[in-house]
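Closing statement on the fe (ii) ion sub-project.
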Amino acid sequence: MSWRDHGIEALVQPDEGLVSPEIFHDQELFDIESRKLFMRTWLFVGHESQLVKRGDFISTYMGLNPVLVVRQRDGGIKVMLNACRHRGMKVCRADGGNSRAFTCTFHGWSYGLDGELNNVPMQDTAYGDRLDRSQYGLVQVPRVDTYKGLIFANFDESAPSLLDYLGDMTWYLDALVDRREGGIEVLGGVHKIVHRGNWKMGAEQFAGDNYHAFLTHVSASMSWRDEDAEGDPNPLKAGLQFTSRAGHGIAGWRKNGMDDAPYVPSPDYELVAKYYRDTAAEVRNRLGAERVDGPSLTAGNVFPNFSYLSRVFCHNSIGVWHPRTPDTFQYWRYCVVDKAAPPEVKRAIMNNMHIWPLGVADSDDGENWSEISANLTSPAVRDTMLNYQMGMGAARDDHPLFPGTITESYVAEESHRNFYRRWQEFMASDEYPDLKSGVLTATGATAGKE
Ligand code: FES
Ligand SMILES: [Fe+2]
């Protein structure tokens, strides 16, 4: 029986902990998602360190929509659709760079940094006085805002402010992006990994799934685990999971930093671990004791598709799960470091991108996602609801130190339930879906809780 017989509301039953596999496969749901989710949520489009000079630009996507993110002559940032108003060609096919204009390679319409249509070849001959260039600039994405260097954009004028949208998540993000004066910077280019699977498989995992790590990644972790190290061989077991009614989540917040992770010693690892020890007092003064060592050995996800992975084998990365089709996505990964870190520490963090995100461990995850996708060609599999019940009833909203909804990290799928609850609200609502029973949080933003 198709989901169409029961409606979108039946696809996700967060209070029962049930999710239909159709949401990972169905083309019609994917089409609805591409508008109702990706054209109304705040989406990460780049980091300010990638746009240093005026004319610097990044080419990326907001959902399926190709966009250019451009540093303006006045220092501001504009985000505009990378689609020529003549026939829809991309006006810029580079991943990024610096430019004075964006000139379409089909017939040569040329747009300024602000998206204005400045030149049309042979305009007088071709159009006489019929073409009003002021009406045919690149389509602007109306909402653009930054959070401590992270650039977000939103197609929906009625969406809440970025700060309200992030809510409690800012407290956790700060421990990644605001540890030291100057925040973070992106090092190098963007790693783009094509996966078979639905983008939500990656997003939900980063929002809350430490449970998979030491089975899925058992062979990878054996390669870097120090057999002689004392202590728990599974450091992800400890820690807290944060989630919010707005759909954000963190797989696990772990104190104790890298120092008790049972990694095979290496010069890079020692260097980066020492850097975190050396900067601990400064971070304590800046953010308080709870965030000195966090986030560590963990992943997080800002709803719907902006993720990070922190201090796993001494690297840090941020990334985006870009949907492509119901069964394919691209994961874009950026290496990030404290801007104030010494060059040798930056180099060590960059060197270790290949250990986890770009090497042995990502392929473990990709194997799961592609196998699930292959199974979803089966109508019987798609008819069978999936179990998302772990840790139901165990969450608390009144943790004395950590804002948001908190559970133990290894044994909870509260993040998943909140992620899909919010997903369903966007999918089912024609209006911008307000959070139900919103409350004022520690950050002063509105974020609903159950
Ligand atoms: S499609 Fe761009 S100039 Fe024709
Ligand atoms: Fe994983």
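The pocket of FE2/S2 (inorganic) cluster (ligand 1) is lined by residues 84, 86-87, 89, 104, 106-109 (CB under 6 Å). With this model delivered, the sub-project is considered complete and its resources will be redirected to Aim 3.
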